[in-house]
Amino acid sequence: MSREVLVKLAHRTIAHARAGTVPQADSVGEVPASNYVDPQRWQLEIERIFKRVPLTLGFSAELAEPGAYKSLEVAGVPVLLTRSADGVVRSFVNMCSHRGAMIMPEGTGTTRRFTCPYHAWSYDSEGALVGILDREEFGDIDPDCHGLTALACEERAGIIFGSITPGVELHLDDYLCGYGEMLETLGLSDCRVVGSQSVEGPGWKVAYDGYLDFYHLPILHKNTFGPDYSNKAIYDAWGPHQRVTSPDHRILDWADTPEEDWSLRRINSGVWTIFPHISIARFDVEGGGPMFMVSQLFPGADADSSVTTQHFLATFEPTPELEKTIAKQMEFLLHVVRDEDYFTGKRIQQALKTGAKSTVMFGRNEAGGQRFHGFVDKLVNAEELDDYREVLAESETAFQP
């Protein structure tokens, strides 16, 4: 079914490429400038979006074997992901049951036990308390009642989705709105991690706007890759999740070949985003094959900051020579995001704080940004915990004509 959808969308994009057209939103959209800078609004976004909806916490390739773990902080919450001996990925608050110390530092690795650095209480990969220092002197407690605090977690399409709020269920199928089947076509579950790097950015919405925006490519990136790309974009949506493609000349190179010969790699191209904080872009490594840069964006300590980790997942086994090529590609992409996108984004953040403009605009050619901010608004206004499911149920899958 996913191939049928991709073929249908490819025919649509080919038609636009030949006609020199793009689908457009009904009107120019406006977003209050204060939405980007107001601390109270930002706090609502943290509470009603990041602490409610399923987030992309990691990737299957990061926890490839039993005993693997990943520790990270998300919106102030320390999270510990593990792959247990049964092969299942689990998620916990990274917090000892004794006195609340964080058990594992941020990063990835493998271990059979997680030992608290404060008093050496230890836990297994399923979160059970299995060791209490000087237990006979500590006092009578039931270890079964004092394991790590579990968080909802589920693995899908090579991606580890999870909640960062104890007791909040994922309802992942509701959240993905059918997008999971499309993500499967990328093949992330068959990839291996070949690198990662982090970059500090502007407020999370300013940063995320850029991942949905092709309009700026030939301009902002004129000294890097911009001249090779069109500024035209076509947006397809599954609820709040969007794929961005362009009707540029490259698609016409194979448009007249038989449909059955269209490779999956051709028809699932573009930038795939997962609301509210993921962008997936594919690149070709010369001599190797496809490599994905998955940008994982989290809000920083306030409305004016964010942190993005670029995860590089390869479909091939890198040789020492390919590792050098990958390192150069990573350096280039870090430069593009840090010194072009986020450099500009930080100045946008600063300018918006002046109050000189009451709104920012998203044109009819920027439907992706309009849709993104529409969902942000709806979720911020959803007061009850499960209201986001109602928001998603009311959304439509938008395949542009």
Structural commentary:
- This protein has 401 residues and is an alpha+beta fold.
- The protein is built from 12 helices and 21 strands.
- The protein has an 8-stranded antiparallel β-sheet with strand order 13-19-18-17-16-15-14-21. Strands 6-3-4-5-10 form a 5-stranded antiparallel β-sheet, with no helix packed on it.
- The model has no long low-confidence stretch (mean pLDDT 95).
Protein traits:
five-stranded antiparallel sheet, eight-stranded antiparallel sheet, Naphthalene 1,2-dioxygenase Alpha Subunit, Chain A, domain 1, 12 helices, 401 residues, Rieske Iron-sulfur Protein, alpha+beta
Q: Which SSEs are present, and which pair or pack?
A:
Blueprint (H helix, E strand, L loop, with lengths): L1 H18 L9 E4 L1 H4 L1 H12 L4 E5 L8 E7 L2 E7 L5 E5 L13 E4 L2 E3 L6 E3 L4 E3 L3 H4 L11 E2 L1 E4 L2 E4 L9 H5 L2 H6 L7 E10 L2 H8 L5 H4 L13 E5 L2 E5 L18 H4 L3 E4 L3 E8 L3 E11 L6 E9 L5 H33 L6 E4 L4 H14 L6 H8 L3 E2 L2
Antiparallel strand pairs: 1-20, 2-12, 3-4, 3-6, 4-5, 5-10, 7-8, 8-9, 11-12, 13-19, 14-15, 14-21, 15-16, 16-17, 17-18, 18-19
CATH superfamily of the largest domain: Naphthalene 1,2-dioxygenase Alpha Subunit, Chain A, domain 1
Question: Quick one: how many beta strands?
Answer: 21
Return the CATH architecture of the largest domain: Alpha-Beta Complex
Helix fraction bin: 25-40%
The whole-angstrom Rg is: 22 Å
* CATH class bucket of the largest domain: Alpha Beta
| Mean pLDDT across residues | 95
**Given the helix and strand composition, which structural class is it?**
alpha+beta
Number of alpha- plus pi-helical segments:
12
CATH topology of the largest domain: Naphthalene 1,2-dioxygenase Alpha Subunit, Chain A, domain 1
Largest sheet: 8 strands, antiparallel
Report the uncertain regions: none
Distance between the termini: 19 Å
The neighbouring-strand order within the major sheet is: 13-19-18-17-16-15-14-21
Number of domains: 2
Beta-strand share of residues: 25-35%
Q: What is the 3D form?
A: globular
